[in-house]
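Extended Data, panel c. Modelled sequence:
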Amino acid sequence: MGFGDLKTPAGLKVLNEFLADKSYIEGYVPSQADIAVFDALSGAPSSDLCHALRWYNHIKSYQKEKGSLPGVKKPLGQYGPAGVQDTTAAAPAAADEDDDDIDLFGSDEEEDEESKKIKEERLAAYNAKKAKKPALIAKSSILLDVKPWDDETDMAKLEECVRSIQLDGLVWGQSKFLPVGYGIKKLQIACVVEDDKVGTDQLEELITAFEDYVQSMDVAAFNKI
């Protein structure tokens, strides 16, 4: 398992393809797996890697609380698609063999029983909380206007980038291109969100992150369901 070298275009392409149908590296919530891969990147992926860039911007918003995310950070070779060898961690692994005092990821063998027990209890409590479903889920129907920079913007690619945003509590709906003027068209796209999980500010931040295609995003209509 692995992504190749995440500091190269080839490795980032593997990551982008891996995230095409996934919101996170593992599971359905942000975890230490996402932090491990995020920390291995040298910066944000380019805008043509829309799945990787969407994931990068989402995980970046968790940096202040990354230490509290569930799971245990593992070597990069334990994440990613099967059949791809990880080479990003090759150099640090060699360094660890030469210097016993440096341990970037920590080891389960070095944790005492009490630390393991506390970690397991916290993870169990977190999963139990996520598993609880409220009796009534408040939802909203939102219509978004996404405007490009000019009439040369690839609108099909713009829509692909927008739809690549996958969040728990977000479902994309129908869309169409509407004329704005001077040959420029905007993307009007509908979505349904769970109010407790997804907000318009979050959507705007993620959509405008595709700055090579998106000039701005506005809320055209907002209705409670």
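Strands lie at 139-148, 170-181, 184-194, 214-224. This feature is highlighted in the accompanying rendering.
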